[in-house]
Amino acid sequence: MKKVAILGSTGSIGTQAVDIIERNPDRFTVTALAAHSNVSLICDQAGRLKPRIAALYDERAARELRRLLPPEVAVLSGQAGITAAAAESGADICLTAMVGAAGLAPTLAAIDAGIDIALANKETLVCAGSLVTDRARKNGVRIIPVDSEHSALFQSLVGHNPAHVKRLVITASGGPFWKKPIEELAGVTPEQAVRHPRWTMGKKISIDSATLMNKALEVIEASRLFDVPQERISVLIHPESIVHSMVEYIDGSVIAQLATTDMRVPIAYALAYPERIECPAEPLDLGKIGGLTFFEPNEDRFRALVLARRALDVGGTMPAVMSAANEQAVALFLEGKIGFLSIVKLVDEVMGRHVTTAVPSLSEIIQADRWARQETNIIGEDI
Ligand code: NDP
Ligand code: MG
Q1: CB atoms within 10 A of CB 116
Q2: Ligand 1 centre and the CA of 103: distance in Å?
Q3: Which of 37, 178, 182, 329 is the most exposed place for a label (fewest CB within 10 A)?
Q4: Eight-class DSSP state of 192
Q5: Counting ligands in written order, which one lies closest to the CA of residue 263?
Q6: How far, in Å, is the centroid of ligand 1 from the Cα of 208?
Q7: Atom of ligand 1 nearest to the CA of 148
Q8: Which residue, by CA, sits nearest to atom 22 of ligand 1?
Q9: Strand order of the sheet with strand 93-96?
Q10: Does the domain at residues 2-146 carry the CATH identifier 3.40.50.720?
């Protein structure tokens, strides 16, 4: 039995993980669940999965949950409660499926407790980078990616010598707008932007997919996870989203992972690793699909990719600033305060004003994150 803690159990990734776990009751048991404020769903999940710990970030929601759950379930609250849910879960693996930089502290706490990480929360790796990977190495903790592209890269790298890798190729669906003329993008509404052509996901990552900032974060995530510099990571638009990414080796071989667009495939892989388990995803029928297409992205049009490369080249606190400014800019866009095209423009401006700390401590990263959010709000007023 593998013991699992799920941070962000009520979200898109979290609920799909619960589905995989419930289909494999002889393989997995859940020790902790955590979310922000969705009392009814976490209560329902706790009733079925019987964790020892259930945590909600929101204090009022946590008080309500305490009234609903039996006394043997420890109900925790606030940032400290989420972090404790990770650290004290006694789990073998912690799925980090909460959204944004809020995932950083609990992920580090799980690593310090020697718990393997199934990493969905890419923002953690983008903002704290080597701080997370170094600590994982020191604690003998494995970080197994859940992000479909990184799962594909991980699967294509298993059993190979990293010195033989020439290039990582990350595929991108392109989101809903990659073919639209730039003039038409100014008036895009949040409702249009969250409607992704291939995946049903949380709001923030759906907007990130539309701006290609998701791909930008993924370039940084891949560079951190696999220790490959940005010059050797390329992005290809692949609208069918069947080839989830590929690794090119020095002998000219390219190894890819293919599957239908169902996040339960990489979630099941990460949870069961190094085993493979059956997954309810529709089988891949390439004969029916017929053709797979690939296009070079125009990096001038999708400035987010340029920003990611710059953030990696500058290093230090810059990726944290990029990610935090983006989180705040997406929030402003969802509140109707800025236009769609202003999201990436704002991130660019904030990065331009940032004075980087080269080898930051955790508190310097948190400070840079806070500064970037404030700066985004200030510049966002007049953009
Ligand atoms: P959702 O918005 O669907 O879910 C977010 C989850 O995190 C919810 O359970 C939410 O709780 C919880 N949460 C939010 N803030 C906090 C907090 N401060 N403390 C504790 N829990 C919190 O997001 P997704 O599932 O789409 O994405 C989660 C992560 O996975 C992101 O980092 C995303 O980039 C990554 N990812 C997602 C993919 C997808 O297909 N969805 C694909 C690849 C990566 P509540 O419901 O109570 O608000
Ligand atoms: Mg992805």
Answers
A1: 22
A2: 9
A3: 182
A4: H
A5: 1
A6: 13
A7: 43
A8: 36
A9: 74-77, 53-56, 28-35, 2-7, 93-96, 116-119, 143-145
A10: yes
Ligand 2 mean position, distance from CA 294 (Å): 17
* Start-end of CATH 3.40.50.720 domains in the chain: 2-146
Which residue, by CA, sits nearest to atom 45 of ligand 1? 36
Residues of the chain with CATH 1.10.1740.10: 151-260+294-380
pLDDT higher than threshold 90 for residue 212: yes
Q: Terminal CA-to-CA distance of the chain, rounded, Å? A: 53
Mean per-residue pLDDT of the chain: 96
pLDDT exceeds cutoff 80 at 261: yes
Q: What is the pLDDT of residues 114-148, one digit of tens each?
A: 999 999 999 999 999 999 999 999 999 999 999 99
For residue 200, name the pLDDT band (cuts at 50, 70, 90): confident
CA distances to 172, 182, 193, 219 from 234, in Å:
11, 23, 24, 8
**In this model, does residue 243 exceed pLDDT 90?**
yes
Q: What is the pLDDT of residue 357?
A: 97
Helix (H, G, I), strand (E, B) or coil at 101: helix
Q: Are 336 and 374 in contact (CB under 8 A)?
A: no
Residue type, position 151, single letter: S
Q: Closest by alpha carbon to 90, among 4, 18, 1?
A: 4
Q: Ligand 1 pocket by C-beta < 6 Å: which residues?
A: 8-14, 34-38, 57, 82, 97-99, 102, 120-123, 147, 199, 201-203, 205, 263
Q: Is the pLDDT of residue 300 over 80?
A: no
pLDDT greater than 80 at residue 47: yes
Architecture of domain 151-260+294-380: Orthogonal Bundle (1.10)
- pLDDT tens profile 345-378: 999 999 999 999 999 999 999 999 999 999 999 9
Output the residue whose Cα is nearest ligand 1's atom 43. Answer: 147
